From TrEMBL:
The keyword Isomerase applies. The active site is at E107 (proton acceptor). It catalyses: aldehydo-D-ribose 5-phosphate = D-ribulose 5-phosphate. One of its GO terms (cellular component) is cytosol. Homodimer. This is Ribose-5-phosphate isomerase A. The keyword Isomerase applies. Catalyzes the reversible conversion of ribose-5-phosphate to ribulose 5-phosphate. GO terms for molecular function: ribose-5-phosphate isomerase activity. It comes from Parahalioglobus pacificus. Belongs to the ribose 5-phosphate isomerase family. InterPro entries: NagB/RpiA_transferase-like, Ribose5P_isomerase_typA_subgr, Ribose5P_isomerase_type_A.
Length: 222
């Protein structure tokens, strides 16, 4: 399987993972990105039996609605049963870097609420130590320079993501050359910088299940 086939395989595996547990009142959290898009498209044939979803981005909400799948404001729901989303990197503890698609804050919110976070990724995303992928940080625009200076003090090389405004009206700094052997600590330290909305480390709230696409098929990692 090539990378695209692996993404399709994990999207299909995620559907197979949740389908036996779908009930009339199941609430699905839906992520953002190319792998999540394949999952949304895989859901389309079940549109009439899916009564509630919440999306981690405007783009995913639009895609869901285009298939006739209902999308709700998270504030109108009392829970999310499953959250299905991709990742930019995952380590062995299923701690993740996310936010390549600039949706990290809403992704983190939906993941925080979800009972089960099902991560879908191809094997290129699996690493020993997080940080090969530049860590996205969502920042209030007027704090950009201040936050960048603090990120340099932590040892990274922040780069402003040109031309990107998040769904929340903020900017993204991508932190390059930043190996992250202690993700819990770094997640906290970056979030403590005034002006940071959140960062793309999912260490305190890792995935519960990883469906990993490999050339030989999909591995389920718990
Ligand atoms: C978006 C994300 C995505 O999950 C991540 O970028 C992976 O995307 P893809 O499935 O396209 O490789 O965090 O903010």
């Amino acid at each position: 399987m090539n990378q695209q086939e692996m993404k399709q395989a994990v999207a299909d595996a995620a559907l197979a993972h949740i389908k036996p547990r779908l009930e009339d009142d199941t609430v699905l959290g839906i992520g953002t990105g190319s792998t999540a898009n394949l999952f949304i498209d895989a859901l389309a044939p079940l549109a009439s039996s899916i009564n509630a979803t919440v999306a981690s981005s405007e783009a995913s909400a639009q895609r869901l609605k285009s298939h006739g799948i209902p999308v709700f404001d998270l504030n109108t729901l009392d829970r999310v049963d499953f959250y299905i989303d991709g990742a930019d990197e995952t380590n062995e503890a299923l701690q993740l870097i996310k936010g390549g698609g600039a949706a990290l804050t809403r992704e983190k919110i939906v993941a925080a609420v979800a009972k089960e976070f099902v991560c879908i990724a191809d094997e290129s995303k699996r690493v020993k130590t997080l940080g090969g992928f530049p860590l996205p940080v969502e920042v209030i625009p007027m704090a950009r320079s201040h936050v960048a200076r603090q990120l340099v003090k932590l040892g990274g090389d922040p780069v402003y993501r040109e031309g990107v405004t998040t769904d929340n009206g903020n900017i993204i700094l991508d932190v390059f050359n930043f190996s992250i052997p202690q993700p819990l600590d770094i997640e906290d330290k970056i979030n403590a910088i005034t002006g940071v909305v959140t960062n793309g480390l999912f260490a305190h709230r890792p995935a519960d299940v990883l469906l990993l696409g490999t050339p030989d098929g999909v591995e389920t990692i718990l």
